[in-house]
Design a protein that fits this description.
The protein has 226 residues and is an alpha+beta fold. The chain is 26% helix and 23% strand.
Amino acid sequence: MKILNRRTVLLLAALAALVAGVALRSRSEPTGTVRVSGREIEFPAVVTKSSFEREILGMPGYHLIVWKDGRAATAALFRAEVTDTEVLDALERLGAKPGNALGMATWEERKDPASHAPDQIIAGPPVEILVKVPGRPAPLTLAEILEDPGGRGFDMRFGGHRANIPKWKSGCVVCLYSCPGSKVGNARYTVRDYVKGATRFRVRPGVLPADGTRVSVVMRLKTAGT
């Protein structure tokens, strides 16, 4: 009986250690992964339309994709289950070289009419962004997802801005303006445009599933003529 009790104790201790290890990994490891294939990457995200369009204590129509644990996640349309650094690393593994054209002044001096920094445009290789939604046979383009009252559309560029990550810790992956916090941003609109209200992006009615739905984001490097 004593031997049996000892074995039971050892077994319980081993199980406890296993459970603790699983719990530790779940806290330290990302919940998703970035798949790299050919000229594109893909990663999971969750729809949060209400956050993206929130007016009170929000930043409506600005952040398209943000890492779920980043400071700007509460204002994103899609909360990525991978970090912004992982996305940046993956795009660089495709051979893309970020433009790194925007410094912090682009945002910090946005209300200063004498500063030219907020008028700067994001630079870098062109990137196509698609979203795979459950129940739809083909992935959605940004033009299919978003309304753009300003009418300039989307010219998404791989800006990179790795040096700005530790300064903001925003977790921004994709912004809809030329933002120094974004890894990919829109060359059609500047931060000054956001301040002036040149456009306010909104989700087209009935296009996206309910908040909390898991989707897949595809970022594809564009080639000449595409």
